[in-house]
Amino acid sequence: MRYNFYLTTGRIFFGVSILAIGIIHLATANFPTGLLPVSGSLPGRNLFVYASGIAMIISGILMLTKKYAWPGALLAQGIFLLFLLFLHIPKLITHLNVSSEWTPAFEVFMLFSGALILGGIVLTGDRHENARHKLIATGKYCFAISLFVFAVLHFLFTKFVVSIIPGWIPWPLFWAYFAVAAFFAASLSIFIQKRVRLSATLLSLMFFLWVCMLHVPELIADIHIETSWTNLFVPLAMSGIGLLIAGTAKPPLNLPG
Q1: Residue ranges covered by each domain of the chain
Q2: What share of the chain in percent tops pLDDT 70?
């Protein structure tokens, strides 16, 4: 496979996911409850819901174009950074022992990392070469940190992970620990810069299989539940980020690039 497959498919997965999450804002007139648990008492909350949704829709559309992908990625970076600074980080600081605060915080951190990586990929011009490398490297390490956190969370809450695995899949406990190992291995690979293309590709495949095997059936069972839609597009975005990382990794010397 050539780099174009990874980068093009990754950009489509990521851009479509951000676009879809924006549409979810407008369709439900609410923030996605699991991803962005914004207090109902926030002044002007409805205004923020629609502003966030429209911004994500614009960002997603722009990222799907070649000409305006950089402004779209930059807009996505700003959106997710604001949610991190003003929503998730304050909650984590005051609720470090509450597991339900860690998952959405690091899902948003992952989305932020994807926007950084995509921004670095689509930023053109020789004078931006240094910025490109910094954006991609920073995004990769942010993504790796998130993977490590999810490895720990999956290990600590294995019973919950087992409970969401469909009954027709055998050995649910094995697959729960397999996910822990996969997250940890991919995180380590990115940190030490060894076999990054392989690990990121396999990680992307794992996320995509989750979309097909877990979240599509969940959505088909009840298309009117907001969380079913959000739970589908968040891992699709993660699959896209994995492909973007694979596409920016150096292939082994004995393979065509």
Answers
A1: 3-248
A2: 96
